[in-house]
Amino acid sequence: MSEGFPPERRPRWAAFVIAAGLAGLAAMILVDAAGLKQDGGYAGVGPADVPRLIAYGLLLLAVMTVVAGLKGDLPRPPRQAPAPVLWIMGGLIGQLALLHVAGFVISGALLFGMTARGFGQRPLWKAVAVGFVLALVIYGVFDRLLRLNLPGGPLELLIFRG
């Protein structure tokens, strides 16, 4: 029971939806892990062991969520504010739309700025500026040091190829 919230003694259907999602994710991981070659390797640990461990943990969380939902011992969820979610979703959509047109740095700066704005950071231009610097550094590390290509746009061509 949570502080400040009287318990509800009826099933909470949202808990069952969450439990189903957790169980579905666990099943997906288990199916994927079943396709991995399991040599055992050194100390008998193979590449499928960690995904299986994660899947079993998700299944345990699913069962615990169902039990909590049946007991009805869950607090009332707080009222949701749509604006932060819309800022973050807008940033994701903007990054997807601009990634191959404007490049990683500009689209990453936009995503960072809009996500920061969703979390309450103001003004937006400062968050975008910080995102720009971070995205530039990340692009440089991945493209120059690690030789892993990120989508480049005109800015990346000017700075890193020019």
Summarize this structure briefly.
The protein is mainly α and 162 residues long.
List the helices and strands and how they pair.
Layout: H1 13-34, H2 49-71, H3 82-102, H4 104-118, H5 124-145, H6 154-161
Descriptive account of the structure:
- The protein is built from 6 helices and no strands.
- The relative contact order is 0.10.
- With 162 residues, the chain is mostly helical.
User: What is the chain-wise order of helices and strands?
Assistant: HHHHHH
What share of residues are in beta strands? under 5%
What is the makeup of the main sheet? none
How many beta-strand segments? Answer: 0
Indicate the low-confidence ranges by residue numbers.
none
| Radius of gyration computed on alpha carbons | 22 Å
* Mean pLDDT figure: 87
Distance between the termini: 61 Å
Shape: flat
Bin the helical content.
55-70%
> What structural class should be given to the helix and strand makeup?
mainly alpha
Number of helices: 6
